């Protein structure tokens, strides 16, 4: 399961989307598929709108989250179009919100069949409910679809640090990290609810940066890169 942040589709550009950034994301997805992985992706919408800024806009959080969920669908449509334009691989867009003119409703067994047929599955709309970021559905869908791990590809960072590297130049990068410590220290690389769910179901999480060349494929092939979160390892640094 690849968790793609919405910001990765903009990658620091002044606009909502960047063609270069989207092409880089597609390249990572296709590399995973070419290397033999069954690829599903949960897509964020932070490049378009975030529910957490509802107070800044003086609107209800539920309405703000609705906008954010629709943003993930817009991102999914664009990713689907870009993948299909650059490869012969079949792509299925599945949404927790029912929009039949655009994509299929998310049905677990149907998603599993798509993966078995070597189709790339793009999962949008979060889980269709407010008050959650797309971190949570990335873990939930990974569990439902019996994925081996969640590969959280972040924009602007290359893993999980003990403190903010932008504020602390001496911040150390974790090589391996336990869920227990991440939750206890309230590290902000992923929602607490998502971390708790991953811990409960022993779902390994890898955090890497999109700006690390070929990061997704390197993790798949066993290379040590970014940060691995699991309770089966000790806490270590690079």
Structure notes:
This protein is 36% helix and 17% strand. 41% of the residues are buried. It is of the alpha/beta class. The protein has one domain: Acetylglutamate kinase-like (Carbamate kinase, 3-Layer(aba) Sandwich). The mean pLDDT is 93. A ten-stranded mixed β-sheet has the order 4-3-5-2-1-6-8-9-7-10, with helices on both faces. The protein is built from eight helices and ten strands.
| Cα end-to-end separation | 25 Å
Tally of helical runs? 8
Outline type: globular
CATH fold description: Carbamate kinase
Give me the strand/helix succession.
Answer: EHEHHEEHEHEEHHEHEE
State Rg: 17 Å
CATH class: Alpha Beta
Strand order of the largest sheet: 4-3-5-2-1-6-8-9-7-10
CATH architectural name: 3-Layer(aba) Sandwich
* Superfamily (CATH H level) name: Acetylglutamate kinase-like
Largest sheet: 10 strands, mixed
* Overall average residue pLDDT: 93
Tally of DSSP β-strands: 10
* Oligomer kind: single chain
Structural class computed from helices and strand pairing: alpha/beta
Number of domains: 1
Low-pLDDT segments: none
Proportion of residues in extended strands: 15-25%
Classify the helix fraction into a percent range: 25-40%
Reconstruct the topology from this structure.
Layout: E1 2-4, H1 19-34, E2 40-43, H2 54-57, H3 61-86, E3 91-95, E4 104-105, H4 108-116, E5 120-124, H5 135-144, E6 149-154, E7 174-177, H6 179-184, H7 192-200, E8 204-209, H8 215-220, E9 227-229, E10 236-237
Parallel strand pairs: 1-2, 1-6, 2-5, 3-4, 3-5, 6-8, 7-9
Antiparallel strand pairs: 7-10, 8-9
